[in-house]
């Protein structure tokens, strides 16, 4: 190709870029400014709702409790039953954990949490991240249940004997 072709192409690119910039400068998109105004109005509305709800919450906290001690005892008892672990309620969740090559302690603990075997995935992850466990996680399928402790599950999937 000739130099004049390249020069012509370069000049055309520069001119088209300048035209695009000039077009945006002289004819800005009005939808963005309209959208900004709408968002600002929405933010103001949400802030006012938040203040109202905070005020209602403060009023509710300041009101004396009308429940007698008998009713409070039953609500406390039901809340304790709801927060009890499956082991305390008598329900034992069982499942099969499949471990394949390259699975990290995070992924294993997430699987166990999703299956309902453990309550705290972070605790299991930290336990499996210890060098003596992290290096010896074995591939395979393992029958686990919610009555097992974190250490028992870790020993099972690393095939370590209980000490």
Q: State the end-to-end CA separation.
A: 80 Å
% residues in beta strands = 5-15%
Could you give the order of strands across the largest sheet? 1-2
Tell me the series of helices and strands, N- to C-terminal.
Answer: HHHHEHHHEH
Which segments are poorly predicted (pLDDT under 50) over 5 or more consecutive residues?
Answer: 67-89
Radius of gyration from CA coordinates: 32 Å
Mean pLDDT comes to 79
List the helices and strands and how they pair.
Elements: H1 3-26, H2 30-62, H3 69-83, H4 86-89, E1 94-99, H5 105-115, H6 121-128, H7 131-134, E2 140-145, H8 150-158
Antiparallel strand pairs: 1-2
Report what the structure shows.
With 163 residues, the protein is mainly alpha-helical. The protein has helices spanning 3-26, 30-62, 69-83, 86-89, 105-115, 121-128, 131-134, 150-158; strands at 94-99, 140-145. It has a two-stranded antiparallel sheet. Helix 5 (105-115) runs antiparallel to helix 6 (121-128).
């Amino acid at each position: 190709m000739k130099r004049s072709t390249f020069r012509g192409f370069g000049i055309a690119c520069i001119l088209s870029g300048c035209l695009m910039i000039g077009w945006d400068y002289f004819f800005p998109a009005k939808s963005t400014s309209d959208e900004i105004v709408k968002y600002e109005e929405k933010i103001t509305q949400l802030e006012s709702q938040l203040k109202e709800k905070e005020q209602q919450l403060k009023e509710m906290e300041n009101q004396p409790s009308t429940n007698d001690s008998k009713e409070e005892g039953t609500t406390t008892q039901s809340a304790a039953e709801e927060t009890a672990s499956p082991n305390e309620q008598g329900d034992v969740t069982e499942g099969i954990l499949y471990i394949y090559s390259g699975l990290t302690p995070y992924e294993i603990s997430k699987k166990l949490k999703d299956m309902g075997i453990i309550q705290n995935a972070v605790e299991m992850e930290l336990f499996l991240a210890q060098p003596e466990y992290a290096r010896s996680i074995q591939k395979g399928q393992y029958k686990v249940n919610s009555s097992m402790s974190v250490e028992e599950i870790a020993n099972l999937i690393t095939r370590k004997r209980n000490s």
